[in-house]
Amino acid sequence: MKKNSKFMLALLLVFCVFTGCSKKSGKNAKRTVNIAIQPSAAFMPLYLCREKGWIEEALAQSQVTVKWNDFESGPPINESLAAGLSDIGTNGDVPTVSAIAAGQKVTIVGVPGNGPDAYAVLANANNSAVNTFADLKGKKVATVIGSTGHNLTKKLLEKNGMTFDDIKLINISAGDAGIVLATNDVDAVVIWEPNVTRLVDNGTAKIIAKGSDTNLRGTNTFLARTDYIKANSDVISVILEQYARAVKELPRASKEDQQKVADDLKLSTEQLLKLYDKYGFAVQCDEVDTAALQDTCQFLVSIGRLDSEYQVKDYVDNSYYNNSKAKYFLK
After folding, report:
1. DSSP string covering 14-58, please?
2. Residues 103-123: tens digit of each pLDDT
3. Label partner for 168 (CA 20 to 30 A): which of 1, 21, 75, 277?
4. Cis upstream peptide for 251 (omega within 30°)
5. Distance between CA atoms of 95 and 84, rounded to whole angstroms?
6. What is the pLDDT of residues 21-65, one digit of tens each?
7. pLDDT per residue over 128-160, tens digit each?
8. With left for phi above 0 and alpha for psi between -120 and 50, is residue 203 left, alpha or beta?
């Protein structure tokens, strides 16, 4: 009996050794993370990460290859996530809420930045008749329908005792804001950074209202494929950690590195640093940001873009932030 017990114990030890080796081998197997990025000023620290290669460096020991996917806006990022071509991406509040409502298996793992004053109402710099939002009653106001700019328009109308019936709302693409203002096709545009800074600095526009005039938060997100993050939690934590590092380093980075990021966003270094101060680079999605995303959900329901409201908090997971060293960089 003792011989049999010793034999079984030996077999168990051999099994454990091989099982342990197998698990270790799986953990160190080569992996890939596909990061989707778009040229919004809210994501400038991520551009510094890419320029410096910090994420690649931090993930090298784990044999993780980093691939970058460039997009011009949020909806194509949603498509890329849905197709499994991207694993994590930067996104605005409307695309984030819309992706979840559409049934995409995605999770909000962080907030790269929020900034109420990254959203503004602009009038032609030479239009002396329009200096406040109240001056827009009966006039043409352009924005991207269904966007955060549209939401800001709604909030400012309510604040000034007006409704959409009191203005002529016109749908435009973000890139056309300067053209329609300069040609006086509209009396105002409601747009976001870096368009606001570009149009004000080149003399085309003046700011007549901004996000902080209302309760707009301007929350952006790190949106990730749920299946991917469950299998690669360490990768997501490293990305958030290195992003936080870039948040801290960007203002004091070398002129050369700042210029590279500015070039990515088609800005001057002076504009880049001015815009940096407009954002709160929280990284973590706190209760205030979650409430702001819930507000976006309510807005989209109110304009008929969503059929019904859902609880955004059910799709937020801060464990990846909590398990990272991001907080140490943000002290």
Report:
1. HHHHHHHHHHHHHHTS-EEEEEEE---GGGHHHHHHHHHTHHHHH
2. 999 999 999 999 999 999 999
3. 75
4. no
5. 17
6. 433 434 568 999 999 999 999 999 999 999 999 999 999 999 999
7. 999 999 999 999 999 999 999 999 999 999 999
8. left
Q: How many other CB atoms sit within 10 Å of the CB of residue 57? A: 13
Task: Give residue 161's region: left, alpha or beta (phi > 0; psi -120 to 50).
Answer: left
* Spatial distance between the Cα atoms of 261 and 273, rounded to a whole number of angstroms: 10
Cα–Cα dist 124/182, whole Å: 7
Q: How many CB atoms lie within 10 A of CB 181?
A: 24
**CA–CA separation, 96 vs 93, rounded Å?**
5
Q: What percent of the chain has pLDDT over 90?
A: 90
Count of all residues that appear for the chain in the document: 331
* Beta carbons of 250 and 275 less than 8 angstroms apart: no
184: tokens are 């006086």
* Residue 36: strand pairing partners: 69, 89
3-state SS assignment for residue 110: strand
DSSP helix/strand/coil, 199: helix
Residues ≥6 apart with Cβ < 8 Å to 254 = none
